[in-house]
Design goal:
The chain is built from 6 helices and 2 strands; from the N terminus they run ααααββαα. By secondary structure, the chain is mainly alpha-helical. The mean pLDDT is about 80.
């Protein structure tokens, strides 16, 4: 049974991510803004030092690849960087990001009771982390590639200010 603390912390976390994404779209994209989320999230891998969060390697691989290539695809396909005439690079927010985030939270809660028949609460959390990290990493790598391409185009055009 899911307790009130787990539900409450998930709701607060989800609302925090939604607020952050809205705020993030109100400023030009910078290199640091692209690489910070996966770098920050990577500290979460420290949880695997605890035996209770460890899962078999094949599970980890499947979770990472599933999220990276299947669930990140809608974000990659609907998020676009564009350059303004002043040379600044902006991200056009994915219209499906909010729905996807809410769907993932719903799916996680829906599968939690089923999965916990076979794996522990801690392992469920670690697999969810791997799924999230795989999606963010794949999405941000694509953004990095697009950012570098736009920055190079800006560097080739002396009429545009250089973006950093």
């Amino acid at each position: 049974m899911v307790n009130a603390f787990v539900i409450g912390s998930t709701v607060v976390g989800t609302l925090g991510i939604l607020a952050w994404r809205v705020r993030e779209g109100q400023a030009p994209v910078r290199l640091g803004k692209i690489i910070a989320p996966p770098l920050g999230m990577s500290t979460g891998f420290a949880m695997f030092f605890s035996e209770r969060t460890q899962v078999p390697c094949p599970w980890t691989g499947v979770a990472f690849l599933f999220r990276a290539f299947i669930l990140a695809s809608p974000l990659i396909l609907t998020s676009r960087l564009h350059q303004e005439p002043d040379g600044r690079i902006w991200m056009k927010r994915s219209p499906i990001f909010f729905f996807m985030l809410l769907a993932l939270v719903t799916i996680r809660f829906g599968l939690r009771n089923y999965l916990e028949q076979y794996i522990t609460f801690w392992q469920t959390g670690s697999l969810a982390f791997i799924l999230a990290f795989g999606m963010i990493l794949q999405w941000r790598l694509r953004m990095l590639r697009d950012f570098k391409k736009l920055s190079a185009e800006s560097a080739d055009n002396p009429a545009l200010p250089q973006s950093t």
